[in-house]
Design goal:
Blueprint: E1 5-11, E2 14-21, E3 23-28, E4 31-35, E5 42-54, E6 60-73, E7 76-81, E8 84-86, H1 92-108, H2 112-139
Parallel strand pairs: 1-7
Antiparallel strand pairs: 1-2, 3-4, 3-5, 5-6, 6-7, 6-8
Amino acid sequence: MANTIHVDIVSAEGEIYSGPATMVFAPAIEGELGIAPKHAPLLTNLRAGEVRVQTESGEEHHFYVGGGAIEIQPHVVTVLADTALRAKDIDEAAALAAKQRAEDSLKDKVGAMEISQAQAELGRAVAQLRLLEKLRKLKQ
């Protein structure tokens, strides 16, 4: 247990993952975080992207988060995601459709709020698609 850190990944829909890990990787606003047991305390925002959890058995769990916050304590990591999905639950067709809608919105909209919303939707869709592509490459 000394070489692990407890990880909780939760969203508004509920708990997505809870368990021990040897390493956690998360997409912080300032850049990618690598979190090992006994990490210094930290609280920061997350951008849309992949959270990767490595277990003692060498298994890796992949999750998509659509932003949120992460709290790191020496023995606990808590990911509070705006939205979170297990990578295997990502709907590629829906992500492609969301990407297309966002790109169309960016072409048609002129208001700062509309552009901001479209850019955020585009970022979330692209992050999901990148994670799916990465997982395909890992399986080969």
